[in-house]
């Protein structure tokens, strides 16, 4: 029965004294977290808080994506495929959340954004080092990008480190090789500081896996997980593009890019091209 006062009594066992116990706010560092939103517009514009929280939330999710992808790479290097796939499954859910977040930012009208955009100076999402780190660990490396982060020792060190480490695709191909699949030697010995580019000689290997899926189930499952990962990344890129187009049209980016055309070019970038190319070759 509902209490006539429309209140729920607090149970006696609920902890009330936090003089010696750690509280929820302390565990999450909420004072620091909730104090990190510092609008710079003068006078402060109402909608700038939305803009800040949108991007800060994305950075938190990107931190978790990096955490999961780095661990997945370690699992692949140790031929622990199932834990690696478990990590990728979590990343896919995070990707869905990141993509859906754009719908919140899309409520920011061009007029509203124009009233505080000028206060952003040269800051831009292009400078998100965690986003670039995700691109690097997925295999789309670009050493030129490091110059953008020359001013930030921590970011530069992170990206430099990932530039010299195998991507998740490199680790997957090495894993397949150790499992007896005929991965071409040049792909196993390539310069891992450069972006992976389409290797047609790899397509027959994946065709074998796909056309005999039951005999190659673990490899087959892993291939499809990677395709999901790339597809989700492209959905994010596209939603980013359309949100920017909706909000600022074809203005140049605050960081100096051409804006929408620059974002559109990113849709042509790929992580695992052979996993798409093989679909044209499959006959059974």
TrEMBL record:
<dbReference type="GO" id="GO:0019441">
    <property type="term" value="P:L-tryptophan catabolic process to kynurenine"/>
</dbReference>
<dbReference type="GO" id="GO:0019442">
    <property type="term" value="P:L-tryptophan catabolic process to acetyl-CoA"/>
</dbReference>
<keyword id="KW-0349">Heme</keyword>
<dbReference type="Pfam" id="PF03301">
    <property type="entry name" value="Trp_dioxygenase"/>
</dbReference>
<dbReference type="GO" id="GO:0046872">
    <property type="term" value="F:metal ion binding"/>
</dbReference>
<keyword id="KW-0823">Tryptophan catabolism</keyword>
<keyword id="KW-0560">Oxidoreductase</keyword>
<keyword id="KW-0223">Dioxygenase</keyword>
<keyword id="KW-0479">Metal-binding</keyword>
<keyword id="KW-0408">Iron</keyword>
<comment type="function">
    <text>Heme-dependent dioxygenase that catalyzes the oxidative cleavage of the L-tryptophan (L-Trp) pyrrole ring and converts L-tryptophan to N-formyl-L-kynurenine. Catalyzes the oxidative cleavage of the indole moiety.</text>
</comment>
<comment type="pathway">
    <text>Amino-acid degradation; L-tryptophan degradation via kynurenine pathway; L-kynurenine from L-tryptophan: step 1/2.</text>
</comment>
<comment type="subunit">
    <text>Homotetramer.</text>
</comment>
<feature type="binding site" description="axial binding residue">
    <location>
        <position position="240"/>
    </location>
    <ligand>
        <name>heme</name>
    </ligand>
</feature>
<comment type="similarity">
    <text>Belongs to the tryptophan 2,3-dioxygenase family.</text>
</comment>
<dbReference type="InterPro" id="IPR037217">
    <property type="entry name" value="Trp/Indoleamine_2_3_dOase-like"/>
</dbReference>
<protein>
    <recommendedName>
        <fullName>Tryptophan 2,3-dioxygenase</fullName>
        <ecNumber>1.13.11.11</ecNumber>
    </recommendedName>
</protein>
<feature type="binding site">
    <location>
        <begin position="51"/>
        <end position="55"/>
    </location>
    <ligand>
        <name>substrate</name>
    </ligand>
</feature>
<feature type="binding site">
    <location>
        <position position="117"/>
    </location>
    <ligand>
        <name>substrate</name>
    </ligand>
</feature>
<dbReference type="GO" id="GO:0004833">
    <property type="term" value="F:L-tryptophan 2,3-dioxygenase activity"/>
</dbReference>
<dbReference type="InterPro" id="IPR004981">
    <property type="entry name" value="Trp_2_3_dOase"/>
</dbReference>
<feature type="binding site">
    <location>
        <position position="254"/>
    </location>
    <ligand>
        <name>substrate</name>
    </ligand>
</feature>
<dbReference type="GO" id="GO:0020037">
    <property type="term" value="F:heme binding"/>
</dbReference>
